[in-house]
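User: Show me a protein chain along with its predicted structure.
Assistant: Here is one chain, sequence first, then structure tokens.
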Amino acid sequence: MHKVLAGVMTVMLSTGAGRDVAGPAPTPSVAQARGLRGDSAAIADAEAMVAAMGGVAIWAQLRTIHLVHEWYPWNRVDSYVENEILDLTAPRSRADRKSEIHHQIRAYSPEGRRWSIQDGTFTYADEEALANDLRRAPFNFFRLVRAVAAGDPFYEVRFGEGDIPGTRRLEFAGPDGVVGGWIILNARKEPIVKATPEYRYTLGPLQRFGNLRVPAWGVYDNGTTRYEMISLTASSEPPDTSLFMPPRGPGN
């Protein structure tokens, strides 16, 4: 992995009567040097978050993450365990959700569309549902962490006003300038809220899984559902893209 060396650059402005000489310009962060756009102070906070979660050197190399959560929805008699394979470099996801009485597999990708198998019944979602998945995918929390580490130029990072008194949020916008996700950090630069325009989760303390540290649990903003992280593994290898394709069969 190549190291990016950011030198200190001094910008000298020509002077005249009544004009000041500019001092040294701020040193760009590693993420900025690689291409991440936005406010330098906001980017520094985002990098500090990645450092708290295991470090830029590791997260920047990740391409696949396997998450195992147990979910507790308020409107179900059963909790369920979800195994999710997430492509960190493209909008692809597959989640297998299983309890003693229900089993659902759902996936989305540009190639395989959005599909699900609910208790043995296969269905395709409509094009609008797929479009929404693909639009939201870049702002998935784990994709944002990886993007900060890699200095992904797709994103602009800036500060916004937090909804917790005394906080401000890290806002992530795409090339169109529209904010698609945000994160609130505590004093230790650990994430305590993750959100998009569609959802907001309050996050628990960081828990170690291998060399990574991620929130141990999350609670939806109105309390209707919560999850606990059971395990997490990640890899620098790309995922098997066949996982995101629908099963072969009549009509598929």
